[in-house]
Specification:
The chain has 839 residues and is of the alpha+beta class. 35% of the residues lie in helices and 23% in strands. Strands 10, 11, 12, 13, 14, 15 and 18 form a 7-stranded mixed beta sheet that branches. The protein has a 4-stranded parallel beta sheet with strand order 2-1-27-28, covered by helices on one side. Helix 21 packs antiparallel against helix 22 and helix 21 (685-703) runs parallel beside helix 23. Mean pLDDT is 91; it is low at 292-296. The structure holds one RNA strand of 86 nucleotides.
Length: 839
RNA sequence: GCGGACGUGGCGGAACGGUAGACGCUACCGACUUAAAAUCGGUUUUCCGAAAGGAAGUGCGGGUUCAACUCCCGCCGUCCGCACCA
């Protein structure tokens, strides 16, 4: 034994001991209560970064804590292994995406193991392996049979040079991120999942997720975007071809008398029909479709319109005619792709009407008396209906209900609920993804691959020399017989969105039979995930898709589970300072030194540098810190401890070398204390009380995922033990400290536990319990206030009677000095806490 | 534009409506040492004061209360999400 804790030796040796003992295997058949702790699985980019370390450390503390509390814990790890970076690497480095990915997985697995996470590695999975994605294909077919999968034409961003489809974030200023070519919109026939069928229950379900952050629930609620309103048809004054009406949706039926135009989306079928025979319309539509989809562009985009010359009849005032325009601000995929404009009460309509000199008619006012106030800007709030015939005088909500009622009675419209949520397009024109298990036959149409032919395995012999999806040109794989008619047919070459892969991996972790995606009973034994931990960037898509997928499986009877994640925690990012040289190059913090007067200087050139904001670690800003050298230097426990200290876990954690140093110091401090602990007998009531308070505080903090508070409580206990004189109680406190610290600094805890001659490993030890009686002191400190200001603090026996406390307080010289002879008017006594004398 | 969160020392942050600044970092002083590292003890919200002590203080302005970082109203600022959603 040395006087220094040696993490390099201890980390490896205890990790080996845990592996040998198979300490973290989750036994589905265990009779113990179960606890499922899960962190969002990583994409195998090749290196672990600090964000991973923080995320998995939090989950690990919880998993180890639950285990010590007597739970059978499932804490698995896997790889979200499909996706574009592997294809990019294939193109750049001429390696196969699979080889690249598997190599990355191997490297990252070793890195994770060095941090000593309590993971059941026997359940490890990678979504890019057929034994995972094959089951996903089966589930896809199940959903298809249940009518939850459909095919539809949809627009994609098409890069004509790379001949590939781009995600929105790959389109930069209207150009492909890699080729720089101007991106085109192209219509492709693609597969969709009917998530909109679940809009209402996904929304309702949010109400049951009381262990989710409010913020995430709100974001999902807004994303689903439910709104109630009226859908109805405007009859055309003179029929236009086959169409004699235009269907619109509104959330403000009460403003219907304020309508001054009808606007069609440039993608609306009627607009397209008009364009087919009128070049002017066609030209306008082409113009309207230009322009980017970025937020900034939309913000500044000018409203453009084209008058079609058509007119519709107002449903409540047959004398009134409204002009029909085509307008660039009308979205095709919300509502009906057409709307009626009420300039007085809608910001966009107002802008449009002002530009094209369309009438602005007030139909809502604060009071009936202000019915004819001029409208200087769009007034979007509720009020009283005015200038609206039979609606006049009604409040907005009442007026809306009245219009819907009349529409339904007269048969020209119906009350309707609209959702912003759109169906989930899952087709990706990519190689490195789950093949969609469909065969296209000219005679039979799209046919599901028969179950006994699953998995549809990705062919290995592909090349990325040519642009486009290599599956499209791999005839050996692509050309197959139709399973129905036996005729010549082709495999679907699109692969599934990787969000599908991550929509059920938590079920596969819980149960992984060979012959089916999961065993229902076994999966249900573990699920829902008790605590799910990950970044807030997944607040909407991943978490919504996973909720949908689970509900879809529930609907088709595969699992008895509506919500996959009972508790959700979104942790903050790991940030670091940033620097830039004067000419704008990003500098890593190592390349900068702080000169006299605190001004940053670039080491290499000696010239000044600019310190920027502290931001999320990212390669582009060169402010990353690689965990590996830090682990080498300080050991796993110091890194883990630092990740949990200081910042509340939901907030960003600023990386600092001082912080990690402090954590390493604490590890050594505990070790020294253990090494130097003399064996003595005897009590130490004060220390015992401190210990029991700490046990309660740490447990409460970990339960609430407030790791920074648990850390602070352990620092306090450590100081108290150091200051205490040797006694039996002190020895007990050291033992308990090790148990309490074990989830956070497990290697140190094991090493110290062994050094203190304890039997067995600390991972198998029970979490200490506290005696509630010891949380209460016999003596309390009373705060003595005069007029609400603290003037004195006095020690008093606990449970001191009101009168006695009052007398005690009045006896204080400081109080008497403050009162200066005045008689107290009133005395407030809060038992065992304070006395407030009001003079 | 809409929605949400946050604002406390030099810094990260604590604080059931009841002693603001726990705990950590930094800095400084001291001890040990030939020396350094490591370690240990101490100080560290501001102002006045030698001290005892006093005054002010949780973004700003009001309010409720015996008592407000905490609750309410109005500003200011920062960050996040959504975004032409009818």
């Amino acid at each position: 034994m040395t006087d220094r804790f040696d993490p390099a030796r201890a980390d490896a040796s205890w990790q080996a001991r845990w592996a040998e003992a198979d300490s973290f295997r989750a036994d589905s058949a265990s009779s113990k209560p179960k606890s499922y702790v899960l962190e969002m699985f990583p994409y195998p980019s090749g290196r672990i970064h600090m964000g991973h370390v923080r995320n998995y450390t939090m989950g690990d503390v919880l998993a180890r804590y639950r285990r010590m509390q007597g739970f059978e814990v499932l804490h698995p790890m896997g790889w979200d292994a499909f996706g574009m970076p592997a294809e990019n690497a294939a193109m750049e480095k001429k390696v196969h995406p699979g080889a690249w990915t598997r190599q990355n997985i191997a490297a990252m697995r070793e890195q994770l193991k060095r941090i000593g996470f309590a993971i059941d590695w026997s359940r490890e999975l990678a979504t890019c392996e057929p034994d995972y994605y094959g089951h996903e294909q089966a589930l896809f077919l199940d959903l298809m049979e249940a009518g939850l999968v459909f095919r539809k034409e949809s627009e994609v961003n098409w890069d004509p040079v790379d001949m590939t489809v781009l995600a929105n974030e790959q389109v930069i200023d209207g150009k492909g991120w890699r080729s720089g070519a101007t991106v085109e919109r192209k219509k492709l026939s693609q597969w969709f999942l009917k998530i909109t069928d679940f809009a209402e229950e996904l929304l309702d379900g949010l109400g049951t997720l009381d262990q989710w952050p409010d913020k995430v629930r709100l974001m999902q609620e807004n994303w689903i975007g439910k709104s109630r309103g009226l859908q109805f048809r405007f009859r055309l004054a003179s029929p236009e071809g086959a169409n004699d009406s235009i269907e619109v949706f509104t959330t403000r039926p009460d403003t219907i008398f304020g309508a001054s135009f009808v606007a069609l989306s440039p993608g609306h079928p009627m607009a397209e029909a008009l364009a087919a025979r009128d070049p002017e319309v066609a030209a306008f539509i082409a113009k309207a479709r230009l322009g980017g989809t970025t937020a900034a562009e939309i913000e500044t985009a000018e409203k453009l319109g084209h008058d079609t010359g058509l007119e519709v009849i107002h449903p409540l005032d047959p004398e009134r005619r409204l002009p029909v325009w085509i307008a660039n601000f009308v979205l095709m995929d919300y509502g009906t792709g057409a709307l009626f404009g009420v300039p007085a009460h809608d910001v966009r309509d107002f802008e449009f009407a002002t530009k094209y000199r369309l009438p602005v008619r007030r139909v809502v006012a604060e009071t009936a008396a202000r019915a004819d106030d001029p409208v200087v800007e769009a007034e979007t709030g509720d009020g009283i209906a005015v200038n609206s015939s039979f609606l006049d005088g009604m409040a907005s909500a009442e007026a809306s209900a009245e219009v819907i009622k009349r529409a339904e009675t007269a048969g020209w419209g119906t009350g309707k609920t609209q959702y912003r949520l759109r169906d989930w397009g899952v087709s990706r024109q990519r190689y490195w993804g789950t093949p969609i298990p469909i065969i296209h036959c000219d005679a039979c149409g799209p046919v599901g691959v028969p179950r006994d032919q699953l998995p549809v395995v990705l062919p290995e012999d592909v090349s990325f020399d040519l642009p486009g999806n290599p599956l499209d040109r791999h005839d050996g794989w692509r050309l197959v017989d139709c399973p129905k008619c036996g005729g010549q047919a082709r495999r679907e070459t699109d692969t599934l969105d990787t969000f599908v892969d991550s929509s059920w991996y938590f079920i596969r972790f819980a149960s992984q039979p060979k012959d089916q995606p999961f065993d229902r009973a076994e999966a249900e034994a573990w699920l829902p995930v008790g605590q799910y931990i990950g970044g807030v960037e997944h607040a909407i898509l991943h978490l919504l898709y996973a909720r949908f997928w689970t509900r879809a499986l529930e609907r088709i009877g595969k699992i008895g589970l509506k919500e996959p994640f009972k508790g959700l925690f979104t942790q903050g990012m790991v940030t670091h300072e940033t620097y830039q040289s004067l000419d704008g190059r990003w500098l890593s913090p190592d390349e900068v030194e702080i000169g006299e007067g605190g001004a940053p200087i670039e080491r290499a050139t000696g010239s000044g540098a600019i310190s920027g904001r502290t931001e999320k670690m990212s390669k582009s800003k060169k402010n990353t810190v690689d965990p590996e050298p830090i682990l080498d230097r300080y050991g796993a426990d110091a890194v883990r401890w630092f990740m949990l200290s200081d910042s509340p876990p939901e907030r960003d954690l600023e990386w600092s070398i001082g912080g990690i140093g402090g954590a390493a110091r604490f590890v050594q401090r505990v070790w020294r204390m253990v090494m130097a602990a003399p064996v003595e007998d005897g009590d130490d009531a004060a220390l015992t009380r401190k210990l029991h308070r700490t046990i309660a505080a740490v447990g409460e903090a970990i339960d609430g995922l407030q790791f920074n508070k648990a850390v602070a409580a352990l620092y306090e206990l450590t100081s108290a033990i150091e200051k205490a004189t040797p006694s039996g109680a002190r020895g007990d406190a050291i033992d308990a400290l090790l148990l309490l610290a074990a989830p956070m600094a497990p290697h140190l805890a094991e090493e110290a536990w062994a050094a203190r001659g304890k039997k067995g490993m600390i991972v198998d030890a029970a979490w200490p319990t506290h005696d509630p009686a010891l949380l209460i002191d016999d003596e309390v400190t009373l705060a003595i206030q005069v007029n609400g200001k603290l003037r004195d603090t006095l020690t008093a026996p606990r449970g001191l009677a009101r009168e006695a406390a009052e007398a005690l307080a009045l006896g204080s010289a400081k109080v008497q000095a403050q009162l200066a002879g005045a008689t107290p008017r009133k005395v407030i006594v809060v038992a065992d806490r304070l006395v407030n004398i009001v003079a």
